[in-house]
Amino acid sequence: MEAVIDVKGVEKMYRRKVHALRGVDLQVxxxxxxxxxxxxxxxxxxxxxxLLTVIxxxxxxxxxxxxxxxxxxxxxxxxxxPEHHNFPQYLTSRQVLRHFGAMAxxxxxxxxxxxxxxxxxxNMSEWAxxxxxxxxxxxxQRVGIAQALMNxxxxxxxxxxxxxxxxxxxxxxREILLRLRDEGRTVFLNSHLLSExxxxxxxxxxxxxGLMRQQGTIDELTAxxxxxxxxxxxxxxxxxxxxxxxxxxxxxARSKTHARS
Amino acid sequence: xxLMQTKAIFIDAYRELNAKKLFWLTLGLNVIAVALFxxxxxxxxxFTILFWTFDGxxxxxxxxxxxxxxxxxxxxxxxxxLSWGTVILALVSTSGIIPDLVSGGTIEPILSKPIGRIRLxxxxxxxxxxxxxxxxxxxxxxxxxxxxxxxxxxxFGLFLAIPIIIAYFSYLFSFCVLIGIVTRSxxxxxxxxxxxxxxxxVVHIADVSMVAERERTAxxxxxxxxxxESQERFAQKRIEQLIEQGKPIPGQNGEPLPSGKVDSLxxxxxxxxxxxxxxxxxxxxxxxxxxxxxxxxTLKLILPKTQETIGLLERNLIASDELDGFINMLNGLExxxxxxxxxxxxxxxxxxxxxxxxxxxGTSFIFEIILLGLSTIIFVRRDF
Lengths: 261, 384
Prior knowledge:
The complex is a heterodimer of chains A (261) and B (384). Chain A has 261 residues and is an alpha/beta fold. Chain A has a domain at 230-260. In chain A, 34% of the residues lie in helices and 28% in strands. In chain A, the strands form three sheets. In chain A, strands 6-7-8-3-9-10 form a six-stranded mixed β-sheet, sandwiched between helices. In chain A, strands 2-1-4-5 form a four-stranded antiparallel β-sheet, with helices on one face. In chain A, helix 4 crosses helix 5 (137-148). Chain A starts with a strand and ends with a strand. Chain B is elongated and about 105 Å long. In chain B, strand 1 (40-42) and strand 2 form a beta hairpin. Chain B is built from 14 helices and three strands. Chain B has helices spanning 2-19, 22-39, 65-94, 97-101, 107-111, 117-151, 161-183, 186-245, 264-268, 270-302, 306-317, 324-331, 342-353, 357-381; strands at residues 40-42, 46-49, 52-55. Chain B is mainly α. The two termini of chain B are 24 Å apart. Chains A and B meet through helix 2, strand 6 and helix 3 of A and helix 1 and helix 5 of B.
């Protein structure tokens, strides 16, 4: 599979103290929905920002869409929705799309046409002339996704796109993501919620503490069932302890309990 | 693509200012200032406001209508309205440009577009200057029309106000941008810029005072030797008279000197001692003033020359002899009379004339370029 993102040994250290990325290797294939999963603070957003030149890496080698990371030719083919975006409140959604279309180098006629098409796709046509200040979080998220698509990108990077969005909005966003894949685009999805990724992603990588722990399809990752060893020290009475043991044994995870009473 | 992105940034800046209502508010205030400018005039009888004439000495015999409007433009239009009123409004309007740009959630989608950080930053900086340019263009055009219609003089020199005020504002804006990029706070950037502006103004006042004091003491120092020589000649003449009369001369031929006198001349002429002391005092006074003037000058050298930049407009708009009648009227002099303060005034003028346009703008732009360069480096290197 042709790699849209192919980076090796990405490192980011802040002020020689905080090691946000500790040598990340990542390959994302063309035409797939790739999910990057990890808890808050794992370094997911930092990795994405490094790819998009928002953050300068301490070390990074590799390519994005065939060009060196950070080149204008690569960025011209990427659409990006940051996690906590703050598009100008004084603009209407149509103005936001046209503005970012112009910033991405889309010609005037094309961007006017595409802005209206995208507003239709994200179900925001009726709000096209309303200012963002009057939008709900979900509506802003839809506009944000449309903004990321203004330059007809080959690669779409969405950082927590469903954050703060209601269930219907989430479903709509998932449908948009699937539609993007069907159009042949590559979608890179950042999330800390497995449930969000497993419904749409072809492949998922798990990132913890700035390191890529595992990569593969959802099936591959769930096939190797791993578990946890729980060690507990308690002053519980024996009958309460037995009840607790039974409860743990009854769960799907394999567990081993060492109790000391 | 470069033009498209630049245009998009400018349009966005306009929309932002428009949303804050400050663009139109400032524009409206500029129109009111022009209306005030037009409502005041001068005729053969005296000073006019709208349709009323106030008879008096201040009439067209002292100053032509053309000079009056140019004088009005350079004495309050530019130094009061444009360089204070408009600049304060412009700072309030534009101080948020960089802090807003680098705020979380705003900068990331912009940086992910194919635009270089240096170009993005400098274009944003230019949007601030463009705001001021638009405001000054309105004011200058209004004043140009007033001067043309009311005085019959179509003075294109008024439009010099546009580059001059932009330069003036750009010195302050470069400071505002640096604070904005460092602190990411609009209010901090605005307040510190105003403090800096006042500091520059105080240094300017100190410079003016020190130069005036230095020149005053220099005149006193230059006049002192002549006074001493005059007193010495008087004493010498007196000694010769005493010799002719065969009388004793203190300090000569074994005659004692009175206490506190250094020679026969001082003993004969007590005023000589005072004159000599005045010369020593004048030298001390000059040395002290000169040292302080040099220190203030050094400080001023590295700071932007805000007041001198504004002064360039006056230099270029009004010929020095055009205001002679008015200046004499203020001093209560008839035409042809010598102003007693002329020597000091001329010496001070000579000091400031030696500070050429290139020196004023050059040193100020060096300051601006350094600050802007620092801001750009911070912006380019910063992680968002």
